[in-house]
Amino acid sequence: MRFVWAVVAFVLATLMIGAGIAQRTVLRGPETVSETVAVSGDAPFTLLDGSVLTSRSGTQTLRIEGDGTIFAAYGRTSDVEAWLARADHATIEPAGDGEVAVTDVAATAAVSDEGAEAAAPVSPVGSDLWLEEFQREDALMTSLQLPADMSVLIASDGTAAAPSDIRITWPVESNTPWAGPLIVGGGIMLAVGIVLYALGWRHLRRSRGPRRKGVPLTATQPIDLAIDDESAERGVIAATPPRRRLTRGRGSFIALPVVVVSALALSGCSADAWPQLSASETPTPTATVVAEPDQQTPAVTQAQAERILTRIAEDVSQADAGADAALAGTRLTGPALAERETNYTLRATITDRAPLPPIPAEPLQILLPETFDQWPRTFLAVVEGSGDSADTIMTVSQQDPWSNYKLGYISELATDTFPELAPAYLGAPQVAPDSPFLLLPPQELAAAYADLLTNGDASPFASLFEADGDAFRAGVASNREQIVADFNQTGAETGTVSFTTQAGTQAPIALQTLESGAIVAVTITEDHTFTPSNPDAVINVPDTNPVASALTGVSQSSTGFTTTYADQLFFFVPAAGSNEPIQFLGYRSNVLSAKVV
Q: Please, which residues have CB within 8 angstroms of residue 148's CB and are 6 or more apart in sequence?
C-alpha cells in the first residue's frame, strides 16, 4: 500500500511542478505591448503628446529610427508647444479606441520685425526648456516614465524632416501568482513520495528477507543475546546492529531529498509568482506647504535649474577668458552683464586688472522658481560657497520660449538668516512692482535705500530698514570717509569731492516668501564726483586709481571726473503691517562707468 501512495504522490508532484513551470513559460502571455507610428510628410519636428505615452501603465520605451542624426527631448507639454509655435510640425495624439493619429500643425506665432533674430527655431539642441534631451545617429532608444502633462519633441537637425519611424513599448503585467505555490507544493509531494517509497521498500525487505535458524540450546546453558560487556567477554556475537546505526542511516536517506526539493522549488520564483494576500501600503507624507488651487507651474525643476546654472557658468567662464562681451551677453543681462562689460574694457587697458569672480553653479542650496506658465519667467537660486567664499544669490530669467535663461542679478550673501521659502516643487509667484501688500513696494525699495545711504539716520526711510547686519551700509559710509580723507591730503584747497546715490534703471525682481513677504533684488548707482574749486585748478587722476583714466581716455580734466558704481542688492521685505523691518541679505558692487564732468 505504501508503494501505491508513493506513486500517487509522484504523479501529483509531476502535475503540480509541471503546471507551475508551464505558467512561467509556455502559458505566460507577452511581457510587452507596442504601438508603431509612421509619420509622413516633411515637417522638421514631431510632438509626441504625453497622453499617448500614458495611455498604458508602466515604463515607456521609445525607439526612433531614421537617417542621420536623431534628436529627442521631453518637457512640459505647454513648454514644448510654445517652443513649436513658430514652426510647422506633426502632432501624435490619441484618436480613441486605443489608436493614435498624426496631425499636421502649422506655425501659429508670427515673428515681428523686432524679433527677427529669434525666427522659427532651427535646432532644438541645448534649449533650456527641456528637462532632458538625447541625440544619436540613425536610431535612438530610451526608457521614460513621464506623466501625462509632459511630451516628447522629436527632430533631426531642425531643418530636415523629422524621423518617421516611432515605436512605443510598454510592459504588460503578466503575474503568475499560483506558479510559486504549485512548484513548492509539487516539491513537497515529491518529498512525501520519496519517503513513502523508502518506507515501503524497507517494509518489503523486513517481511520477505532470509531468516536464520535458532541455535540449539541445552537445558542447563541458555545463550544470552543481550549486548553488554559480559557478552563480549564470552564471545557472543550480536544478531542486529546497534539502534544508533539504524537511526542515523534512515535519517540521512530521508533528509537529502527534502533539502534538494526545497532548493529546487524556491529557486527562481520571483515576487510575481506568488499571490499577494494583502495590499502593500504606501506611506503618504503630510504636506506642510499646500499650493493654491489656481497656482501655476513652477518655471523650472531642481535638475533643470542645476543644468541651466552649469551652462551659464561654462559660457561666462569662456567669455571671461577671451573678454568676449558678445558671448557673455548670451547668458547675462542687466547689471550682471553691465559689470562684466566694464571689466572687459578695463582689462584691455589695465594689464593687471583682475577678472570678476566666476559664476558658481554648484552645489545648489536654495531654489525658488516663479510659478508662471507664460513668459518672461524667473527663478531665484542660492549656491553654496566653497572655502572662505560666501554663498551666492542670483536671479535667472527667460524672456521667451526660444531664448536662453540669463542671469540678471548676482550678489554675495551677507547674512546668516534667510526667510522661509516654499519648496522648489511648489515655487512662488512674482510680486508686482507696485504691490501694496509689502512693507514697501518693490519699485520704491531702491530709491528708499539710496536715500538712506545718502542721509543716514536722518532719512525718512531709516526706520524701515534693519541696521544691524547691514554690512553694505556700514561699508559705504566707511569707504566715503576714506575717499574724502585721501582727497583732502592733496586737493582740499583746489577741489571738492561729492557723492550722490540713486535708484538704478533695472526693474526690480520680487518673489514671494511663505509669510507673504518677498525677496527683492534691486540696483542702485553711486556717483563719486571730483571737481576743481577754482577755474585755474585741474583734477588729475592718481596713478593708484587708473579706472577713470581707462574709461574716459584722459588723465586730467579742468571740469572734473565722475565715476559711477553699480550696486546689486537683495532684501527681504516683510508683508504690509508687519512689525519686522526690511532685512538686508546681500550685495555686489563694481565700477560701471566714468566720464568727464
A: 50, 51, 53, 54
Measured from the Cβ of residue 444, the count of other Cβ atoms closer than 10 Å reads 16
pLDDT of 289 reads 57
Whole-angstrom distance, CA of residue 438 vs CA of residue 448 = 14
Work out the number of other CB atoms within 10 angstroms of the CB of residue 389. Answer: 11
pTM of the predicted structure, to 2 decimals:
0.78
* Mean pLDDT to the nearest integer, 528-537: 83
How many CA atoms lie less than 13 Å away from 6 in the CB half-sphere? Answer: 11
- Please state, in angstroms and rounded to a whole number, the distance separating the CA atoms of residues 314 and 301: 20
| Spatial separation of the C-alpha atoms in residues 572 and 586, rounded to whole Å | 10
E strand or H helix that includes residue 9: helix 2-24
> Secondary structure of 407-425 in the HEC alphabet?
EEEEEEECCCCCCCCCCCC
Unique residue bearing C-alpha cell 564732468: 597
The 3-class SS string of 252-265 reads: HHHHHHHHHHHHHH
- Give the separation between CA 591 and CA 568, rounded to whole angstroms: 12
Q: What is the DSSP letter of 433?
A: T
Which residues make Cβ contacts (< 8 Å) with residue 63, sequence separation at least 6? Answer: 139, 140, 141, 166, 167, 168, 169
Q: What is the pLDDT of residue 514?
A: 94
Amino acid at 276: Q
Averaged pLDDT score across all residues of the chain: 84
Rounded to whole angstroms, how far apart are CA atoms 569 and 584? 8
Residues 6 or more apart whose Cβ sits within 8 Å of residue 441 = 433, 434, 435
In the chain, the percentage of residues whose pLDDT exceeds 70 is 80
The residue type found at 126 is G
Give CA separation, 255 vs 97, 242, 249, 509, in Å: 58, 21, 10, 78
Q: Which residue has the cell 502649422?
A: 106
Out of 114-128, 165-179, 309-323, the most confident range is 309-323
Residue 146: DSSP 8-state: -
